[in-house]
Amino acid sequence: MINNVVLVGRIVREPELKYTPSNVAIATFTLAVNRRFKNANGDREADFINCVIWRQSAENLTNWAKKGNLIGITGSIQVRNYDNKEGKRIYVTEVIAENFQMLESGKGQVNQNSHPQSQSNGAKEPDPFSSSKVEEIDDDDLPF
Fold first, then answer.
1. Residue 100 Cα distances to 58, 59, 139, angstroms
2. Which residue(s) pair with 49 in the sheet?
3. pLDDT per residue as tens digits for the range 105-131
4. C-alpha angle with apex 83: 77 to 88, nearest 5 degrees?
5. Mean pLDDT across the stretch 20-38?
6. pTM, whole model, 2 decimals?
7. Residue-by-residue DSSP string for 94-119
8. For residue 11, what are the contacts with CB-CB under 8 A and spacing of at least 6?
9. Pairs from 31-34 (Cβ < 8 Å, separation ≥ 24)
10. Shortest CA distance to 47 belongs to which of 2, 94, 82, 89?
């Protein structure tokens, strides 16, 4: 059976880090993931997906990822349920993230490590972003 999830989205609020009684780190966060199609008004809607990540990855995520950051995650879907105080059965669907990747760094620039190398006839194309030289660009030089 296959239960695989790959998501790219923005963190809605600061991830929340907690520890279990046996001192295992667990972080919860919500990703806003754009839908593929626009609605009848021409607007792109988003789904807000609850996610959980465990152990060292949870600590790393809460240290590095902040509200508004674009991240990619891989994991699986989990559905759990419990009875609330009124005795009503509550179902919770969430993504259990196994890995995450920061897709932006600094002022919204994409990490060069997150660019997959394109393949052509089995050979790797040169990465146009691999130059270690950083060029400063003045706002007046931008065409928009």
1. 10, 12, 32
2. 31
3. 655 444 433 333 333 344 455 554 444
4. 110
5. 93
6. 0.68
7. EEEEEEEEE--BTTTBPPGGGSPPPE
8. 29, 30, 31, 32, 65, 66, 67, 68, 69, 71
9. 31/7, 31/71, 31/73, 31/95, 33/7, 33/8, 33/9, 34/9
10. 94
